[in-house]
């Protein structure tokens, strides 16, 4: 993402992440996070903006994962920006790169 794109669209972004499923679908494993990108440190803000670009999330959601099963965690990622409004993606854990999973844990 270019710095112009970052400056133009990312700073007004809210990201909400919730999860379901996982080992035995245990409710305790479910989580919900709401991240206001404006409130993050500049380095983390840029990393979040690059990782949660709606175009890239759409591509991840469309590709098939490596495994199937009831024990897979599913993430519902909602990216809301001032210009385009909310974008909602349901993405299985096996469809997300390790870097994004680590970032979700970090936030």
Gist of the model:
The protein is an alpha+beta fold. Helix content is 34%, strand content 28%.
List keywords for this structure.
4-stranded antiparallel beta sheet; 4 helices; disordered N terminus; alpha+beta
Largest sheet descriptor = 4 strands, antiparallel
Helix content: 25-40%
Question: How many structural domains does the protein architecture include?
Answer: 1
How would you describe the shape? globular
Number of distinct helices: 4
**Strand content range:** 25-35%
Please list the strands of the largest sheet in the order they lie side by side.
Answer: 2-1-3-4
Strand and helix order: HEEHHEEH
Instruction: Report, as a whole number of angstroms, the end-to-end distance.
Output: 20 Å
Please tell me the overall pLDDT: 82
Structural class of the secondary elements? alpha+beta
Uncertain runs with pLDDT below 50, 5 residues or more? 1-8
Overall strand count: 4
- CA radius of gyration is 14 Å
Description:
There is one protein chain. The protein is of the alpha+beta class. It has one domain. 34% of the residues lie in helices and 28% in strands. The protein has 4 helices and 4 strands; from the N terminus they run αββααββα. The protein has helices at residues 3-10, 42-51, 54-62, 98-106, and strands spanning 14-21, 32-36, 73-81, 85-92. A 4-stranded antiparallel sheet has the order 2-1-3-4, with helices on one face. The longest helix is centred in the middle third of the chain and has 10 residues, at 42-51. Residues 1-8 have low confidence and may be disordered.
